[in-house]
Specification:
The complex is a heterodimer of chains A (120) and B (111). Chain A has helices spanning 12-39, 43-51, 53-81, 84-87, 89-119. Chain A has 120 residues and is mainly alpha-helical. The chains are: A mainly alpha (120), B mainly alpha (111).
């Protein structure tokens, strides 16, 4: 029986949409930051940019998108390769452990990012 | 392993995604150092001039480029373009070609 208990939206269609919405947000963010870096930045200009409210909103949006995007992507990978069908009960244990570790890492990224964006 | 080009592009999309999940730590660390203080910004600059760090940054940027190209292919296919066997093979080849070019350009920019 398929129990959709660890996927982000409890529904494949919701996950599919979230994966695309977050992908487009991340693409926009990396393109923008890439363009800024290509233009060359010094500390005052870089600091000034990240002090703007819209840039903080954009950065936090990208960070949260990263969290959702990584969760959906890693869920797809773990549920393909770490499964009961492939390795018995060990598969379930390994999969849940891997997901717990990734959730912890993702949570750390988000809190760390918020601290960077609003802490300095 | 003999696999069609579409399979390699798909596997590499997954592998680059896992790699980027770890690579984000490098990017967030760099963002931290770049914003903490003028001194940390300067030392980050210093750090980024070392060949080993350049290699790490290039690897993360390469992962971003490839993952983006393969992701855009998915978005294009969501619009019903290139869903046939021939279309997928062509799309996969385009993803590889564009990635190679952009990754080389990124390498030139970093060095």
């Amino acid at each position: 029986m398929v129990t959709a208990v660890t996927n982000l939206g409890r529904s494949g269609l919701y996950d599919w949409l979230m994966q695309r919405v977050t992908a487009v947000i991340l693409l926009a963010y990396f393109l923008y930051v890439g363009c800024v870096l290509l233009g060359g930045v010094d500390y005052p200009a870089w600091k000034e940019l990240h002090a703007q409210t819209w840039m903080r909103v954009f950065s936090l949006l990208a960070l949260l998108s990263l969290g959702a995007h990584a969760w959906v992507g890693l869920w797809a990978i773990f549920t393909d390769y770490l499964t009961e069908r492939l390795m018995g009960t060990t598969g379930n244990v390994l999969r849940l452990a891997a997901q717990a570790v990734c959730a912890l890492i993702m949570f750390t990224y988000i809190v760390w990012g918020i601290q960077i964006l609003w802490g300095y | 392993m003999r696999l069609p080009v579409t399979a390699w592009v798909s596997i590499a999309h997954r592998a680059s995604g896992v790699f980027l999940f770890a690579g984000m730590a490098v990017l967030i660390w760099a963002l931290d150092a770049s914003l903490a203080s003028p001194e940390s910004f300067a030392s980050l600059r210093e750090c980024l001039s070392s060949p080993l760090v350049k290699l790490v940054v290039w690897a993360v940027v390469a992962g971003l480029i490839y993952h983006t190209m393969a992701g855009v292919k998915h978005l294009v296919m969501d619009f019903g373009i290139g869903e046939t066997m021939e279309g997928s093979i062509l799309g996969s080849r385009i993803v590889i070609a564009l990635s190679v070019v952009l990754i080389l350009l990124a390498g030139v920019w970093i060095w």
